[in-house]
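stage 2 :: seqdesign
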């Protein structure tokens, strides 16, 4: 998890378990590609442990593990 993702998680009163729940219950709704590096990011929308909607944006790191770039509550979309 990046420092930015941790800060955003704290700002929205989300826990690491909420982030895990979003990934496990969610769907990839968008793939983005960085124009400079060609690196792909994945936008996942899902539900927190309390059932609230949230978004996790992540990318695959060099070891193949998911790195969380940002995390936020998502009241804009209906899942």
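stage 2 :: out
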């Amino acid at each position: 998890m990046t420092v930015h993702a941790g800060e955003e998680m704290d700002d929205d009163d989300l826990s690491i378990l909420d982030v895990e729940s979003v990934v496990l219950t969610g769907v990839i709704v968008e793939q983005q590609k960085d124009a400079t590096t060609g690196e792909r990011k994945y936008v996942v929308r899902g539900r927190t442990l309390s059932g609230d909607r949230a978004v996790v944006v992540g990318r695959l790191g060099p070891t193949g593990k998911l790195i969380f770039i940002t995390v936020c509550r998502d009241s804009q979309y209906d899942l």
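stage 3 :: structure notes
- The first helix runs from residue 3 to 11.
- The mean pLDDT is 90.
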